[in-house]
Amino acid sequence: MTDSVIIFVFFVLGGSMLAQWTAWRFRLPAIVLLFSLGLLYGPVLQVMHPSEMIGSAFHPLVSLAVALIVFEGGLALDFRQLKEAGEGVLRLTLVALPINFLLGSLAAHYIGGMGWGPAFLFGSIVVVTGPTVVLPLLRHAKLKPRIAAFLRWEAILNDPVGAILATLVLEVLLMHPDEGSGTVFAAIVPHMLASAALMMGLGVGTAWCVRWLCVRDLLPDIMKMPLFITLALMLYVVGTLSMDGAGLIASTVFGMGLANLRIPGMGELQRMKEALVVLIVSVLFVLLAADLQRNELASISWSIGGLTLAVLFLVRPLGIWLATMGSSLSWRERFFVGWIAPRGIVAAAVAGIAGVRLQDAGYPGAGLVMPAVFAVIASTMILHGFSLIPLGRKLHLTLSNQPALAIVGASEWSTQLAQAVHNVGTPVLLVDSSARDLAPAQKAGVPVLCTEVLSEEGAESLEERPADYLITATPDAIYNGLVCAHLAPHFGHQRVYQVSPGVARLDQYRGLSREARGKVLGQPGWNFTLLETLVKQGWRFVAKDITEDNKERLLMENSDFLIFLMIQKGAAITVVSLEDDASPPFWAGLVAIGLMPPPK
């Protein structure tokens, strides 16, 4: 085994996964940790230099990985999201982009000290907001659906458009002097428009062919994901052969086609590709940051620092403000989108290739393009990565940041449980397909959602509510398990619970499979019939503050207090289950919610 393979496995794969876990555990932006790790490996310690280790295949491999990322992003673009966010998305992708291009070019010339040619190239590169950065941030931000849709659509759609714009600028700058402006309008622009239209048609057509195979059961499930990935890469290669940047359009449109043509079985496949993209993004950021040279970092001057500040605090905010004038966006949304614009891998890849070509052509100041773009990338990742959640909360653009509970199934006892949780100030949502069954909870002030959670509409509605834990509490044990299995990828398998199906059905070998149900709520003997019977006999759900005086008594085996939840107000929820490896916390200051018998 060669040294380069060992370095890649331990330093890149191992380090990137450790960074991802650390970011998840301590609620940090993973992108910032990955970028810092790459800088540590490359310019600081000089342990690795990927382009030298991998050779000429490095940049093509990076491009193929980016194609998979934009394909995955396309799968997240559902046209139904445009009902509310459509106007804002169009303004961000069609109006803001040329404004940002012009303002960025002017800033690069007058503040960054670049010649007009490199300045226009810089302006075309920094108009994109990378999905490699934006999408991971959105997964943890809990933004409201409308503002999240703005950032998601802009990042994914502007990526290929920005790459094509940079290609157009580069081709114009590299034209021979005797070719004149007629070449631009007679050859270059028509070729680009034709290539873009062809790739869009090819992406949609390929998605239709895939749907035709799937609905006729001509494609086994085990082949779907490998085929989708292969087709996305093939479309990228075909598009790139036609024109630089067109491949990204083809891959993105293919993903959008699959997402909106309602192909059977896409839900499980989307979760698989999300896991794959997390690995790809992690590796790419480490490798690209590690590939930076010390002399490139040393060339960052005061002028580049001023240019970076101008892009952050002037170009982007002013461009968004001008583009959204007279729109339905609130001032909070305009301010937030004007600030949050982290750049990612596509900007880095385009700068690395286009900047060198322009420098070889002898343009003065072309050597500043690469360090200037990376200064913007690093600054936006750090500042926007750490400020996205706090700023969203300050502007009231996030869902609740407190841990929240969703309960599926409205009965007398589950309504009481939801009301007890609501009364202690913890967010809770009671879900049922029957408005009549939800009426008592709604009358008591408990938030409710009338929907079928197994439907697409129900799943989307649930994602828009701030829920971190799930309890299924219907009389049907099979339905409870089905809901838990269906929603476990969204909540996490350790955070989905169901009322016990009965002791006899919990056998790990002969009973309900653990993969087909949630963890048992409370004790195995606390099935729906028992809880319903206890409530009819006068038992009630109550909340008790845990103190040093009463905690020993409440924990006694013969205690008449049946504990279901332990809540640390504003910080944590623990659903009590005998199937959890660790014992639930039980210390002074917590609130225990459980069933109490009627007073004697």
From TrEMBL:
<feature type="transmembrane region" description="Helical">
    <location>
        <begin position="31"/>
        <end position="51"/>
    </location>
</feature>
<feature type="transmembrane region" description="Helical">
    <location>
        <begin position="150"/>
        <end position="173"/>
    </location>
</feature>
<protein>
    <submittedName>
        <fullName>Sodium:proton antiporter</fullName>
    </submittedName>
</protein>
<dbReference type="InterPro" id="IPR003148">
    <property type="entry name" value="RCK_N"/>
</dbReference>
<feature type="transmembrane region" description="Helical">
    <location>
        <begin position="117"/>
        <end position="138"/>
    </location>
</feature>
<keyword id="KW-0813">Transport</keyword>
<dbReference type="Pfam" id="PF02254">
    <property type="entry name" value="TrkA_N"/>
</dbReference>
<feature type="transmembrane region" description="Helical">
    <location>
        <begin position="368"/>
        <end position="389"/>
    </location>
</feature>
<feature type="transmembrane region" description="Helical">
    <location>
        <begin position="275"/>
        <end position="293"/>
    </location>
</feature>
<feature type="transmembrane region" description="Helical">
    <location>
        <begin position="299"/>
        <end position="323"/>
    </location>
</feature>
<keyword id="KW-0812">Transmembrane</keyword>
<keyword id="KW-1003">Cell membrane</keyword>
<feature type="transmembrane region" description="Helical">
    <location>
        <begin position="222"/>
        <end position="239"/>
    </location>
</feature>
<keyword id="KW-0406">Ion transport</keyword>
<feature type="transmembrane region" description="Helical">
    <location>
        <begin position="89"/>
        <end position="111"/>
    </location>
</feature>
<feature type="transmembrane region" description="Helical">
    <location>
        <begin position="6"/>
        <end position="24"/>
    </location>
</feature>
<keyword id="KW-1133">Transmembrane helix</keyword>
<feature type="transmembrane region" description="Helical">
    <location>
        <begin position="335"/>
        <end position="356"/>
    </location>
</feature>
<feature type="domain" description="Cation/H+ exchanger transmembrane">
    <location>
        <begin position="18"/>
        <end position="392"/>
    </location>
</feature>
<feature type="transmembrane region" description="Helical">
    <location>
        <begin position="185"/>
        <end position="210"/>
    </location>
</feature>
<keyword id="KW-0472">Membrane</keyword>
<dbReference type="InterPro" id="IPR036291">
    <property type="entry name" value="NAD(P)-bd_dom_sf"/>
</dbReference>
<dbReference type="InterPro" id="IPR006153">
    <property type="entry name" value="Cation/H_exchanger_TM"/>
</dbReference>
<keyword id="KW-0050">Antiport</keyword>
<dbReference type="Pfam" id="PF00999">
    <property type="entry name" value="Na_H_Exchanger"/>
</dbReference>
<feature type="transmembrane region" description="Helical">
    <location>
        <begin position="57"/>
        <end position="77"/>
    </location>
</feature>
<dbReference type="InterPro" id="IPR038770">
    <property type="entry name" value="Na+/solute_symporter_sf"/>
</dbReference>
<feature type="domain" description="RCK N-terminal">
    <location>
        <begin position="406"/>
        <end position="496"/>
    </location>
</feature>
